[in-house]
Write a structure and sequence with these properties.
43 helices, four-stranded mixed sheet, 60% helix, alpha/beta, single chain, 6% strand
């Protein structure tokens, strides 16, 4: 059975997009929805951020609400493709990843995938000498009309994809026709080639095939006429002459030396300008003798080639990309030496100087001229102009097997003219930039070297310093590795220094690195190529001024990662422009997009960015950026807390002065998701703000996190941030801030069973709230004290605190607060064993909540009611109340409390003897808690184990 009840899905991208679920065609909806689907399909399982989807569908001028529209389209597609998926169950097909979506490729098929597979199979068979099999594979390609794809799909992404897919379809068609000519099917190919040339008159490869087919069919005059016609079209339309390949085909016809079909390949006579007797080039730089590790990356590179010792049967492009200092060139050159024997016609190498400190990137025409000469073309015979040079370069490589290493590329445009046009050769590119265009359009396969593992770092230091010296001080080696953040360049610099001072203890080197922590001073080398600061600067200098400014501003963020929204706040610029700058930084490998919309720095790049911010930006510029960031975080957290528990009434914020826009949440599920994802950032932000003198932001941010952190069990976090907040409020001499901080500390200590410090903090908070005349703050603390009393078995005192809290709420006409206290009083009566009194309190609370329309309060009180009924032995009534409560919490999106109620429901089912229903309820609770990362998972696991054991069916104690 298909997962989640999903039948096999098949898509067609050629022509107008279509889909079938089993035998039934599915209507794909409006054009923009089809555009979203097309992007997901063409991403081949990779996640696409919502912002990228918006850009792909609408371009630079999206409508208002475009993000919401994209999410709506995704929801509709999920419903369309998974109609049987139960409500609340995550999609198993169109999955959410970070702030984006991905379409699982293992669950679908498509005509595009079949097309690509057929082309790969054909190239493989041709390389193995099975030309007839290659033709059969290509003829099995699903009919694609004229190669038009995504017909009727709007947006810039679809337009670009249409062009790329049409080109690939034509390439496959030309491949099939060329193989058929090799097999002697020239007469049968002529009609198809004539039609193809009529449709694509500027495509010289088609004209060259047509000339060959006509000539071999005995139609020499028509072949020459076809050449003249193409020359005229090229001159009229483009103002150019035919390229080398077409001119060569024409010359062979004139000379009567067109090779016969299906004859064994013979060495070509030297082409005009070719140096007779020229040997194949061998341009690879020397391999690094101390190359270390990179086993996983070498494995990925080796997977580019077929097994055995032969060259590839397809056009292969590998891209080694990543940040400066990761050893991309060393990896590429090392692997190139390992596989050079598989390319009998030699190896080409060039440093494209994409990030050269002393000059501009090498233009492609200079490289093609250099490569042509290396391949045997006489210098005076190299044609003028990049197009002519690239065409001759591809023609020469067509019958050769050459290894080509293009080092330090700036962008895809610098690389494309240097790519062979036929299978057999391998191109390996290194770049600090992510060459996404090569991956998307030329099928390049990226390999991104990460940081070295701890074991590889140890091996690197051992190779450079000697095994005995490294083995003698393992703790120092671990400290050096940590300080270098496992970056090969940094490790090499430190190893070089240690090697020049063999008498130094490695512990002293490690201590020096610790002293310079947060600085790049320890990683200065003897020349620019071995100086971390200089190497990083080459990438930085290639940035636009706006991207460079954002790079410096991001260093002000405390981490561990940075969202797009936080980057927008730091930049103080419109979101769309900032997203473009983040893309520029990731392409330059100065920033890593860990998940859609979430970015991280390497530790040494963060230090480099911080140095630049300190030296290039004034204190006022840095201060303004910090204030925007703190404002954004505080106001977003405030809004999330308000959505999560509107009855708590978080403290009002003073008017903002920076114009930094907070995120807005439509429901508790969105607010909870943001808070859960940002947990560590939010904790760090409190300390970061306090350390830099933004004390009001520090204590207010801690205060608004109280609800969520308490509910999710992050009590140690609460102790930490409220301790910082309390000191910040004291520096401000702000009694309100001190009161909220003490209240948060008291609640956290209560949850951790620290009764004495909890009571002390709460009593001090109560005194401060009384001093400021804040009745809501007083009521908040009375509820906290009542909770502490219940945890320490002082039920009567708890009821007294609840009575005071209720009176304060009533005096302020806060009926929601009063209802909340009634629900908590009911729980206290349950703890006292007075379940009838508890039910009376619940009924009174439900009346108030019903009048207020507060679903959250109703859900909570239904749970309390069910608990009281359970202990009165009215299990069926209790089950009904628990089910109501769980449904309400599910609708609201509060999955922690939903899980809490499901545990109560499981206990009620167990009391009736229905172990299966009890087990189902507990498993549902466990799944929700596991998703939240809540510590109560262990408690539910214990309940499940107990349920599976043979024991009496007795209700648990309250």
């Amino acid at each position: 059975m298909e997962e989640s009840g999903v039948q096999a899905l098949r898509f067609s991208l050629f022509g107008s997009p279509r889909a079938w679920q089993g035998p039934v065609e599915v209507a794909l909806g409006p054009p923009q929805q089809r555009a979203v689907l097309a992007m997901l399909l063409l991403s081949r399982g990779r996640a696409i951020g919502v912002a990228d989807l918006v850009d792909g569908v609408w371009g630079a001028a999206p409508p208002r609400g475009a993000v919401a529209m994209v999410r709506t389209y995704v929801a509709r597609l999920r419903k369309l493709f998974e109609p049987e998926r139960p409500p609340g169950l995550p999609s198993g097909l169109l999955v959410s990843i970070g702030d984006g979506y991905a379409l699982r490729t293992d669950r679908i098929s498509s005509d595009l995938a079949e097309f690509e597979e057929a082309v790969l199979e054909a190239e493989r068979r041709r390389a193995e000498g099975d030309s007839a099999g290659a033709v059969r594979s290509l003829r099995a390609v699903p009919a694609a009309g004229d190669g038009a794809a995504l017909v009727g799909v709007p947006g810039p992404y679809a337009e670009s994809a249409r062009t790329g897919l049409a080109e690939r379809w034509l390439n496959a068609l030309e491949l099939r026709l060329s193989i058929e000519l090799e097999l002697g099917c020239h007469e049968a190919a002529v009609p198809e080639l004539l039609a193809l040339r009529a449709a694509h008159p500027l495509r010289e490869a088609v004209s060259a095939l047509l000339l060959t087919a006509l000539y071999r069919s005995g139609r020499r005059a028509e072949a020459l006429e076809a050449y003249a016609h193409t020359c005229q079209v090229l001159a009229d339309e483009l103002g150019i002459e035919p390229g080398p390949s077409l001119r060569a085909a024409h010359a062979r016809i004139l000379g009567g030396d067109v090779p016969a079909a299906a004859s064994p390949a013979e060495p070509d006579a030297p082409s005009p300008g070719h140096r007779a007797g020229a040997t194949g080039p061998a341009q690879l730089p020397a391999d690094l003798p101390l190359f270390t590790g990179r086993r996983a990356e070498l494995g990925c590179l080796s997977a580019l080639l077929p097994e055995g010792d032969g060259p590839p049967g397809t056009a292969v492009i590998g891209v080694v990309d990543g940040m400066a200092g990761t050893g991309k060139t060393a990896l590429a050159v090392h692997w190139a030496h390992r596989i050079a024997h598989r390319f009998p016609d030699g190896s080409l190498y060039v440093n494209l100087r994409g990030y050269d400190p002393h000059g501009s990137p090498m233009p492609p025409d200079s490289v093609t001229e250099m490569f042509l000469v290396a391949l045997g073309v006489a210098p005076q015979a190299v044609p003028e102009g990049l197009d002519a040079q690239a065409a001759l370069y591809r023609s020469i490589l067509a019958d050769r097997r050459v290894l080509i290493v293009l080092d330090n590329a700036r962008d895809a445009g610098q690389v494309r003219p240097l790519l062979p046009g036929t299978p057999g050769s391998l191109v390996l590119v290194t770049s600090r930039s992510r060459l996404g265009g090569l991956v998307a359009q030329q099928g390049a396969r990226p390999v991104t070297p990460g940081l070295l593992s701890a074991e590889e770092s140890y091996e690197l230091l051992s190779r450079r310093l000697g095994r005995a010296r490294v083995d003698a001080e393992p703790e120092a080696v671990a400290a050096i590795t940590e300080s270098c953040a496992r970056l090969p360049l940094a490790l090499a610099i430190v190893a070089s220094r240690a090697a020049h001072h063999p008498g130094f203890r490695l512990a002293d080197v490690a201590q020096e690195l610790r002293y310079d922590h947060g600085s790049l001073d320890a990683f200065a080398g003897d020349d620019p190529g071995t100086d971390a600061r200089a190497v990083f600067s080459w990438s930085y200098q290639a940035l636009s001024p706006e991207a460079a400014g954002l790079f410096r501003a991001l260093a002000l963020h405390p981490g561990p990662d940075i969202t797009t929204a936080a980057a927008v706040a730091l930049a103080g610029a419109p979101p769309r422009g900032v997203r473009a700058l983040l893309t520029e930084l990731t392409r330059a490998s100065l920033l890593i997009e860990r998940a859609p919309g979430r970015f991280v720095f390497h530790d040494l790049l963060r230090a480099f960015s911080g140095e630049l911010a300190d030296t290039e930006d004034s204190e006022s510029v840095r201060g303004a950026a910090l204030l925007r960031m703190y404002d954004h975080v505080l106001r977003t957290a405030h809004h999330a807390s308000s959505v999560l528990d509107p009855s708590r009434g978080p403290i009002a914020l003073p008017p903002g002065t920076t114009g930094s826009e907070p995120l807005r949440f439509n429901d508790r599920a969105q607010a909870t998701a943001w808070l859960r994802t940002e947990r560590y950032v939010l904790s760090a932000m409190v300390e970061h703000a306090a350390a830099r003198g933004y004390d009001e932001h520090a204590w207010r941010t801690a205060a608004v996190l109280d609800v969520y952190f308490n509910r999710l069990g992050f009590w140690h976090d609460l102790v930490k941030i409220n301790g910082v907040a309390l000191e910040a409020a004291r520096r401000l001499d702000d009694p309100t801030g001190q009161a909220y901080s003490l209240s948060g500390l008291g609640v956290a200590h209560s949850q951790l069973d620290h009764a004495e410090p909890a009571a002390d903090c709460l009593e001090r908070a109560l005194d401060l709230f009384r001093g400021t005349g804040d009745p809501f703050g007083q009521a908040r603390v009375h509820r906290g004290l009542a909770y502490l009393c219940n945890r320490t078995d002082r039920r009567t005192t708890a009821l007294d605190h609840y009575a005071q809290a209720r009176a304060l709420f009533r005096d302020e006409s806060d009926r929601n607060g009063e209802a909340g206290v009634l629900n908590q009083v009911a729980w206290t009566y349950i703890l006292l064993g007075d379940h009838a009194q508890a039910l009376d309190c619940c009924r009174e609370a439900l009346v108030l909540y019903d009048e207020l329309g507060d679903l959250y309060g109703m859900a909570s009180t239904q749970d309390t009611t069910g608990y009281a009924l359970h202990h009165l032995g009215r299990y069926e009534d209790a089950i009904d109340r628990f089910q109501r409560s769980a449904r309400l919490f599910g609708v609201i999106g509060d999955h922690y409390l939903e899980a809490d109620v499901l545990q109560h429901l499981g206990a009620a089912h167990r009391a009736t003897g229905d172990r299966d229903a009890a087990r189902a309820a507990l498993r549902s609770a466990r799944a929700l808690l596991a998703e939240l990362g809540h510590p109560d998972v262990a408690e539910v696991d214990a309940g499940l184990r107990d349920l599976d054991a043979d024991g009496p069916e007795t209700p648990p104690d309250p």
